[in-house]
Design a protein that fits this description.
With 295 residues, this protein is an all-alpha fold. It has one domain: ABC transporter involved in vitamin B12 uptake, BtuC (Orthogonal Bundle). It has 13 helices and two strands. A two-stranded antiparallel sheet has the order 1-2. Helix 2 packs across helix 11, helix 11 crosses helix 12 and helix 11 runs parallel beside helix 13. The longest helix has 30 residues. It is globular and about 60 Å long. The termini are far apart. Belongs to the ABC-3 integral membrane protein family. One of its GO terms (cellular component) is ATP-binding cassette (ABC) transporter complex. It is a multi-pass membrane protein.
Amino acid sequence: MRFQENWFQILQTTFMQHALVGGSLVALTAGLMGYFVITRQNAFAAHALAHIGFPGATGAILVGAPVTLGLAVFCVGGGLLIGLFGKRVAEREIATGTILAFATGLGVLFASLATANASTTTNVLFGNLLAISRDQLWTFGGFTLLVVAALAVIARPLVFASVDPAVAEARGVPVRALGVAFVVLLALTITMAVQVVGTLLLFALVVTPAAAALRLTARPGAVAGLSVAFALASVWVGLVLSAMIDLPPSFFVVAVAVLIWGTVLVATRERRSARPAAPAVGGHDVVHAVPERAR
């Protein structure tokens, strides 16, 4: 580990520019999806989808196919199964765990058969932002457009279905279809994020920025904006630090995201503890409009 005096020139290299664009696209989609991941209690599903994509990546390495293709096929396929088999939270957890166990077994099998490509397998586990190619940027761009366009169409009913699914279903909102669509969009986001921070560090971009934003506001639009800003800051600052100090960018991206979350946590703790208690009406506490899990 040493300080690199030519860090500004390093930032101007082609691979750093690819990393900046690719990381920004991932931060945008992850920031937008993070609010729904938390309010829908899908953090475990997000974590599981990254591992479900692992056999897809190792299988692609084994047959010589693009890693992104393998990740996308397994992540989207796993997402569809989770969405179709698990309507309630408990059912979804069971379906997720079962699919995760099977996918992990396949991943171990494929990884053992693809020992000649151990470095690529390591990149899948821990990410390698500096290895993003021009072709991957086009793929990331297509995925980002698809996720943003889909959210623009389904965001309002998806928020309703995420915050209060029982009432939404009673009012005719297609909760099940929205759930499946959401998991597919999440799978596309994770397909990109895995290649930036890896399967083991995925929470840093998909969950942590949104968790920090939810400490500041409960409004979905504001949470999405803050979450994207926090994720972008994590990627940009992480890349600059990686250019200045010869260490993997994944570490710095995760460290900055956790630092932002920790700072927000400390800054809002005193404000929340000083908040006056809700007034009682008829001997009962007033229930806030936003459920606890959406705060």
